[in-house]
Amino acid sequence: MTGQFGGLLRQARLRAGLTQEQLAERSGVGIRTLRGFETGERGNPRVRTVRRLAEALDCEPAERDELLAASVSAEAAGPAPRQLPAPPGRFVGRREELAGLDAALAGANGATAVVSAISGGGGVGKTWLALHWAHRHLADFPDGQLFLDLRGFAPDGRPVTSAEAIRGLLEALGVPPAAIPADLDAQAGLYRSLVAGRRMLIVLDNARDAHQVVPLLPGSAACTVLVTSRDRLAGLLTAHNTRPLALDVLAEADARALLTARLGEDRLAAEPEATADLLTRCAGLPLALAVVAARGSLRPDLPLASLAAELRDAATRLGALDADDPAASVRAAVSWTHAALESAQAVVFALLGLAPGPDISLHAAAALTGLPLDQAAQVLRRLERISLLEEHTAGRFRMHDLVRLYATERADHDLTADRAEAGLRRLTEFYLHTSFAADRLVSPQRQPIQLPPGSPRPLDGPAAAWAWFEAEHANLLATHQLAVDRGWHALVWQLAWTLQSFRWRQGHLDENVTVWRAGLAAAERSADPAAQTLAHRLLARGYVLIGLYVDATQHLRRSLNLAEEQGDLLEQANAHHAFTLIRAHQGDDQRALEHALSALHLFRSLGDRVGEAETRNTAGWYEARLGHYEQARAHCEAALALHREHENHYGEAHTLDSLGYIARLSGDHDAASVFYRQAITRYRDTGSAYDEAATLDSLARTEQALGDVEQAAATWTRALALYRNQRREAEAERVRTALAGLTSDPASAG
């Protein structure tokens, strides 16, 4: 039976008026593979293959995204997601609410997903309750648990959009970033298809309103959704069979139990009047009680009467501690704790409220505040101890959203505009310089941009640089947007440059294009022709990677024109070199060679030996594809010598692969085998598994030509494993076909 993707592909092909043979020729997808896709016999292709097919069919964006969404369902294979944060350490009360959630789960009628909406004021314990209940019922959701903070009432006023939320859920379900469709409807359809029939719990925390939640609801009766919000979500109650659960403050007995768990019964019993006063002033609000308990724990010698007196002194604020005004109640709970801070600590607290992104590292906080690292650490620890800050991961801190809201208000009160601007500028420059240093570690072969002096965070090597990028990804994107909003044009395009290698290798290809669009706009506003030239070229490279060759050509042509107008020979060389990639994708090896030779001439005239080595190798590759083997060999041998002279091991590996290719095409399979094995060694030295897979593939063909069928099967098996891990379906299919054609037992090759 034809699968969904196969049916859509066949419809698109017929609309385009193409036969299977014509589509196979245009796209480069084998005819057997293409037929298998249409009949459903070969499953679904991976993203790169879908993009090639869509381009060959000249699909509109919506049709392309529909094909993509239909193809990636199988890519999300992997362990069940376990995203729930840790269970609450101390939980009291809420017996009726827990029983109501239990009854909703037990009473599911199978017609729709079970949806429960926990509503209530800020700080009332909605997430506290949701996580406690969820951890009690883990066994009921064997297919996994998803957790998403929708930031509906975040202090910066920017809730998570539907597109951001669905993208986060898809990534949690194992869909690679490059496989996520661009169209929101296609993303939502893919999300619903991935959770269909699975017994999963989906916790949507801190929703702004029903409109934000509806696109995230699954269509499967097997799922249970738990939503928390300050809004009562009436739209969900009327249209989506939602069980409402309005959360009030804690009863007095439960509030006392919470204080007892933190401070001890003996201490409360010793001061019954002060205890009663504390309970009255906190009005059963869990966040307020937690702050009181933290303060009391830090000062075991402090009488509870003193704590109660502090609350009374803030009578005007504490009077707003009312369920009808949750923001005011939280402000009151935090304000008296804030009042205990020294002035320098209060400034740090206010600056932290302005920092972009969901959390902050110690080094970033030091940059934001302008403090030495050890002093910044002392202040952060102090803020953490009194519950104004949480160290959710070693060395990384975040604020509860309501505490952060109060911090932003304090920033308006405590900081001048110049001081706030200076702090955010220091933080942005810290992220810029550290991401630049990290990029130099993971991609030392890139031609660097020039930055003003700065102090990056020390990183030990490529592994540490990669870990830093992963930990700071959300903060870096938020900081890039901050720079856009503030009009810091140079920082916008410079940050885009420093984040590029990470985005490419992680498969954040659409994000890369988005960031470079902003980078180009900033370069144009800054009236910096050199920055514009670079931005056009790198935006073009981004378009190539997502298969938009027309857009790529336009921007690359503009980059070349600007470079020529400025007399910038280096950027002219870079543009010509980039054009080889576009021409190769278009199947024009001759024009690709012409661009490579133009780039080579320019690099040589500049005395750029690394650029010369790279373009000599590129020229040799296309000369070999055109059958000019002697010229190809001469270019690649010269490139190899240059790469070794400059200890460019990655470039050396590429050139060894090219020499193997030339030798194989020339019929010298023994020499090809030697070159390929040397290239594989270098690729492994540089951690380049992507390139290693292709060279293993070529080595296996060489071994087959030499008659060593057993070795060819073993080498192809290694290549196949890498292709599968990298989700390179077309290459994997080609290797499977090759293995099946060997005279040895293909079953032994996997």
Can you give a write-up of this model?
- With 750 residues, the protein is mainly alpha-helical.
- It has 38 helices and eight strands.
- The strands form two sheets. It has a five-stranded parallel beta sheet with strand order 2-3-4-1-5, with helices on both faces. It has a three-stranded antiparallel beta sheet with strand order 6-8-7.
- β7 (390-393) and β8 (396-398) form a beta hairpin.
- The two termini are 26 Å apart.
- Mean pLDDT is 85; it is low at 314-330 and 744-750.
Provide key terms for this protein.
five-stranded parallel sheet, mainly alpha, 750 residues, 66% helix, single chain, three-stranded antiparallel sheet, 38 helices
What is the topology?
Blueprint: H1 4-16, H2 20-27, H3 31-39, H4 47-56, H5 61-71, H6 95-106, E1 114-119, H7 126-136, E2 145-149, H8 162-172, H9 184-195, E3 201-207, H10 210-213, E4 224-229, H11 234-239, E5 242-246, H12 252-263, H13 265-270, H14 272-282, H15 286-298, H16 304-313, H17 315-318, H18 326-339, H19 343-354, E6 360-361, H20 362-369, H21 373-385, E7 390-393, E8 396-398, H22 401-414, H23 417-442, H24 462-486, H25 489-498, H26 500-506, H27 509-525, H28 529-545, H29 549-566, H30 569-585, H31 589-606, H32 609-625, H33 629-645, H34 649-666, H35 669-685, H36 689-705, H37 709-725, H38 729-741
Parallel strand pairs: 1-4, 1-5, 2-3, 3-4
Antiparallel strand pairs: 6-8, 7-8
